[in-house]
Design goal:
By secondary structure, the chain is α+β, with helices and mostly antiparallel strands. 41% of the residues lie in helices and 18% in strands. It folds into 2 domains: 1-143, Orthogonal Bundle (Arc Repressor Mutant, subunit A); 147-224, Ferrous iron transport protein A (FeoA) (SH3 type barrels), CATH 2.30.30. It has 8 helices and 8 strands; from the N terminus they run αααββαααββαβββαβ. Strands 3-8-4-5-6-7 form a 6-stranded antiparallel sheet. α2 (29-36) crosses α3 and α4 (68-92) crosses α5. The protein starts with 6 loop residues before the first helix and ends with a strand.
């Protein structure tokens, strides 16, 4: 997969991709600026340049989205980022709440040759430590058929397939609760009036129930159990 010309361009394309990876909504210019930590005018100029380069589309007063060429370049950045995160956890002993910022720096520096060797060393993983799919070299993405825990009805169960890495504090909270990938969970009760959900963690006698607030529930994606 080809590489964008600059780290700033890589960051912009990756952010647009991430915004639409688990949602059908297009990211707005203001939200893009916020996510990148830049001013709206800086984000607007970056989008203009990438649009001129054929990597983005931007509707006037509308959302920003990737072209097919932009998607391929974004996938290259995402692949590097997630393989690096996986290596940091698997081989260097990082915890899952520590790896994002490290990968943000290293993704711009690692060579394709080194990335291929990391991929082989790790056994060609299909997901990173948070469950996000790692794009393959050919641009395909092994995406699981996961659903947001917030969308599952009472009584529904499945295994944790993904946990958003947007907030390290949430990741530390889940680690303390013992919530991680592949854990069996069941929605016991929704308490809409309190903004909480009772979730059963684990199966059998060793399972236990916890109350999760709406932000925590929204961070979890589940692969529903077969009926």
């Amino acid at each position: 997969m080809p590489r964008p010309a600059t780290p700033a361009a890589e960051d912009c394309l990756k952010t647009v991709y991430a915004a639409g990876e688990w949602s059908d909504e297009k990211i707005t210019l203001s939200k893009l600026a916020q996510a990148l930590g830049v001013s709206p005018s800086t984000a607007s100029e970056a989008v203009r340049k990438l649009t001129d380069a054929g990597l983005l589309r931007h509707e006037r007063y509308g959302g920003v989205e990737l072209t097919e060429a932009g998607r391929l370049q974004a996938l290259g950045v995402v692949r590097r980022h997630r393989l690096i995160e996986t290596f940091l956890v698997a081989d260097l002993g990082y915890s899952w709440d520590e790896v994002h910022e490290e990968a943000e720096v290293l993704e711009h520096a690692v060579s394709d040759r080194m990335l291929d060797r990391l991929d082989r060393r790790l056994g060609h993983p299909e997901r990173d430590p948070h469950g996000d799919p790692i794009p393959r070299p050919d641009g395909t993405v092994p995406r699981p058929g996961a659903h947001s825990l917030a969308d599952l009805p009472e009584g529904a169960a499945g295994s944790v397939a993904r946990i958003s890495d947007a907030d390290p504090e949430v990741l530390r909270y889940f680690a303390d609760l013992g919530i991680g990938l592949d854990l069996h969970v069941r929605v016991v009760k929704r308490r809409e009036f309190a903004g909480t959900t009772v979730v059963r963690l684990g199966e059998g006698p060793g399972g236990r129930e916890v109350d999760l607030g709406d932000p925590a529930v929204a961070a979890v994606w589940v692969l529903p159990a077969a009926r």
